[in-house]
């Protein structure tokens, strides 16, 4: 994700591993002329800094995450940079990070000149649901009691919109505190309360129930797992996450029309299943398969089946490309982090296991009790019916116009099509945001399965035209003008 320029500084977030070991996701400002670091904000506080008490002692030396990966927003006039942050590592089990874990899952308002914290809001305390903020915040101006208020809006994976006064951090809509259940997983201590907005209403459904599942096979699977409202704890049986790990809101973010006060948000309504499984100890005698389970199975699953296309299967790797596979394990590729911290003999053992499927003894190493975790996930698993479609009744993707002056909806409709289905109103998963113009048009690609780029009437949601892209437009469009003619562009590379 690109940084943001303020005067002669580049302000930049970071990408760090979501598993352990990780590193704190500090936010830094660099001098654009010399490259020197001008300031650093510690998103995982150090001794003497506010928020240090929300972690175990010296957590910054062994814990990680809390990084600002979605992108930043800058109010240049106020000299404020708004930075959303991600979850603490490990995402789904927090026995080594008891406490609320500031500044994970926060919107930070920082002095752009110094990095000093002006205010913050934490959306999820002690996150074990991968509810990191998925998109950059949106600078908006809304009407309140006959006056205009400069505000900042933040969408979430859970399908909520929070709106804050830019100067004070005060919520412009009422918030409610919800009690959350205890975890029955050994070692876990969840926050007892979380906060949600009362308005606007969520732009995605909030709980999966059996009556929302039409397929009998999927119903039977549903009865084997846990499901409930937001913040239902992860479990060893499996817990439904709905909206799923990719939202609700996702990385494209929202678009705001200042002339109408409408915020446009595209959303996913895909259920996933989070299941915790025991994680082998990292110290003492080990084997190639155990090393794979410890380091790779959380994304690629223990059976190496993955969750394509985001997490590819690793069953049929080409032995002729051993050197390439070894490079990826050591250095990473795309969103996958490298495993250069593992001894070379252990990297080789993992690769041998992937290429042959055969387990073998591997070199033992001394473990670090501070980053040991008793549980990990069995992968990122979408809850699908036997035909490969989402187990929940449609819509599976929506496009929403929310009035931030009132908190109500101007319109809401299914978004995206499965070409193989006769029903063209199901909506689909979508990744990539909208662009709204003064000319009255809302442009968006984003839909995964139909590769369409669409133009809508921004007031009514009526489809004006659409065209097929060469690949999915999993990005946010941009517009520019040359010689009096306006163009709109989008990166069409697929990837989701």
Give the strand tally.
34
Percent in strands: 25-35%
Give the helix proportion (percent range).
under 10%
List unreliable stretches of 5+ residues: none
General shape? globular
Summarize the main sheet.
4 strands, antiparallel
- What strand line-up does the widest sheet have? 1-2-3-4
Fill in the keyword field for this structure:
496 residues; Cytochrome Bc1 Complex, Chain D, domain 2; globular; four-stranded antiparallel sheet; mainly beta
Descriptive notes:
- The protein has 496 residues and is mostly beta strands.
- The chain has a domain at 282-366: Cytochrome Bc1 Complex, Chain D, domain 2, CATH 1.10.760.10.
- It is 8% helix and 30% strand.
- It has 5 helices and 34 strands.
- The protein has helices at 216-222, 288-295, 297-300, 322-331, 344-356, and strands spanning 4-6, 9-12, 27-31, 37-41, 64-65, 73-75, 80-84, 88-89, 106-111, 117-122, 138-144, 147-155, 161-165, 175-179, 193-197, 239-241, 255-257, 262-268, 272-274, 276-278, 284-287, 332-333, 336-337, 361-365, 375-377, 381-382, 397-403, 409-414, 434-436, 441-444, 452-457, 463-468, 478-482, 485-489.
- A 4-stranded antiparallel β-sheet has the order 1-2-3-4, with no helix packed on it. A 4-stranded antiparallel β-sheet has the order 6-7-9-10, with no helix packed on it. Strands 17-18-27-28 form a 4-stranded antiparallel β-sheet, with no helix packed on it.
- The radius of gyration is 23 Å and the shape is globular.
- 44% of the residues are buried.
């Amino acid at each position: 994700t690109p940084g943001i320029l303020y005067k002669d500084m580049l302000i930049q977030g970071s990408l760090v591993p979501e598993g352990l070991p990780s590193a704190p996701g500090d936010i830094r400002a660099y001098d654009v002329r010399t490259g020197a670091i001008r300031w650093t904000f510690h998103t995982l506080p150090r001794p003497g800094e506010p928020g240090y008490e929300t972690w175990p002692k010296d957590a910054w030396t062994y814990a990680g995450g809390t990084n600002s990966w979605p992108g930043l927003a800058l109010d240049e006039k106020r000299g404020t940079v708004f930075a959303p942050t991600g979850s603490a590592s490990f995402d789904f089990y927090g026995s080594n990070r008891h406490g609320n874990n500031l500044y994970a899952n926060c919107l930070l308002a920082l002095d752009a000149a110094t990095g000093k914290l002006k205010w913050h809001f934490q959306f999820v305390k002690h996150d074990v649901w991968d509810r990191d903020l998925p998109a950059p915040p949106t600078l908006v101006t809304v009407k309140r009691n006959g006056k205009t208020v400069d505000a900042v809006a933040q969408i979430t994976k859970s399908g909520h919109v929070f709106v804050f006064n830019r100067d004070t951090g005060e919520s412009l809509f009422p918030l409610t505190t919800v009690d959350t259940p205890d975890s029955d997983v050994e070692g876990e201590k969840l926050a007892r309360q979380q906060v949600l907005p009362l308005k606007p209403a969520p732009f995605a459904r909030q709980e999966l129930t059996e009556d929302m599942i039409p397929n009998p096979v999927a119903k039977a699977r549903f009865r084997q797992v846990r499901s409930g409202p937001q913040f239902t704890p992860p479990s060893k049986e499996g817990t439904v996450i709905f909206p799923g790990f990719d939202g609700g809101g996702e990385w494209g973010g929202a678009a705001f029309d200042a002339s109408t006060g409408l915020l446009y948000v595209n959303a996913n309504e895909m259920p996933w299943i989070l299941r915790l499984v025991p994680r082998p100890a990292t110290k003492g005698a080990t084997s190639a398969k155990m090393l794979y389970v410890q380091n790779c199975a959380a994304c690629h699953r223990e059976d190496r089946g993955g969750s394509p296309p985001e997490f590819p299967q690793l069953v049929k790797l080409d032995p002729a490309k051993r050197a390439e596979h070894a490079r990826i394990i050591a250095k990473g590729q795309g969103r996958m982090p490298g495993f250069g911290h593992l001894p070379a003999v252990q990297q080789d053992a993992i690769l041998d296991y992937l290429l042959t499927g055969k387990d073998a003894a591997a070199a033992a190493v001394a473990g670090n009790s501070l980053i040991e975790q008793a549980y990990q996930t069995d992968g990122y698993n979408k809850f699908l019916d036997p035909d490969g479609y989402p187990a929940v009744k449609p819509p599976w993707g929506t496009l929403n116009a929310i009035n931030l002056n009132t908190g109500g909806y101007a319109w809401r409709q299914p978004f995206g099509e499965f070409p193989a289905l006769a029903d063209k109103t199901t909506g689909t998963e979508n990744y990539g945001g909208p662009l709204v113009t003064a000319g009255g048009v809302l442009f968006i690609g984003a839909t995964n399965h139909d590769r369409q780029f669409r133009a809508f009437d921004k007031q009514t949601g009526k489809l004006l035209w659409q065209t097929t892209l060469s690949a999915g437009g999993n990005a946010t469009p941009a517009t520019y003008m040359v010689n009096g003619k306006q163009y709109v562009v989008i990166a069409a590379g697929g990837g989701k």
